[in-house]
Design goal:
With about 150 residues, this protein is of the alpha/beta class. The chain contains 5 helices and 6 strands; from the N terminus they run E-H-H-E-E-E-E-E-H-H-H. Strands 1, 2, 3, 4, 5 and 6 form a 6-stranded mixed sheet that branches. The termini are close together.
Length: about 150
């Protein structure tokens, strides 16, 4: 499984400006809603916040992988973003998050949803990948890295 199969270039955000968890979720969500106007941004945001209430998706080491399931989606959507300054995402290690992958899935594809989360986790355990992710100097470079992953 390649991450690039579920990611689109417009959903790669090379420089998040958010400074809070809520702002980061809204910023990651914005291009998804722009590409899918039938999606209710408030509903999606609430699904993400409900998931955060169960336990943070800030997994530590500067990484957050917010995710949720939506009945209104017909395919899995992945958004990648980075924050050079980092922001408080209530991470398990209490450190700021800089690398973000948001995964939105239809309710009926749990197996694929979990495989994508596992693939993202595997990639982010690779220090070389994380370094390349943070050092890519443009959306194109970041897209090339992610679409090959």
């Amino acid at each position: 499984m390649k991450l690039g199969e579920y990611l689109e270039k417009e959903l790669v955000l090379p420089e998040l400006t958010a400074s809070t968890k809520q702002e980061a979720l809204a910023e990651l969500l914005a291009p998804v809603v722009e590409k899918n106007p039938a999606l209710d941004a408030e509903e999606v945001f609430n699904v993400l916040m409900e998931r955060e209430a169960l336990g943070t998706t800030g997994i530590g080491n500067g990484i957050a992988i917010p995710h949720g399931k939506l009945p209104s989606l017909d395919k899995i959507v992945v958004v990648a973003g980075r924050s050079f300054e980092g922001l408080d995402f209530d991470a398990l290690d209490q450190k700021p998050c800089k690398i973000f992958f948001m995964v939105l899935a239809p309710e009926n594809v749990a197996g694929t949803h979990l495989r994508i989360l596992a693939q993202i986790s595997r990639l982010l355990k690779d220090d070389d990948f994380k370094q390349l992710f943070m050092e890519s100097d443009s959306q194109d470079a970041l897209w090339n890295l992610l679409s090959a992953a």
